[in-house]
Fold:
Amino acid sequence: MRICPDLDGGFIVIRMDDQRAAIAAALRAAHEARPAWREDAPPEDGTYILGAVTYRYKAYKPDGQRQMRAKGRWQKAVGMYGKWENCERPERWLSVSPSPVEGERK
Structure:
């Protein structure tokens, strides 16, 4: 048994088996709450996603859309100083931002 302080300034007695079960339940819940890797088509709205490296979808300007006959292109981060290079669409991805980043140059 273990005596631990509670939030009200008192103490509670915890049996070790209960503590282990609580820790196991918390770890299980954290693992289940973790987002899963996805293999469907990633969003093409400027959302940053996580793959083996960081990817983003960058829309072409209107003239570029007309010339390239595409809405935009996929880019991956290279180096440490914010450089991006064009690449193929990522196969597995995980979103790390809910929407395009505000204030980023387009």
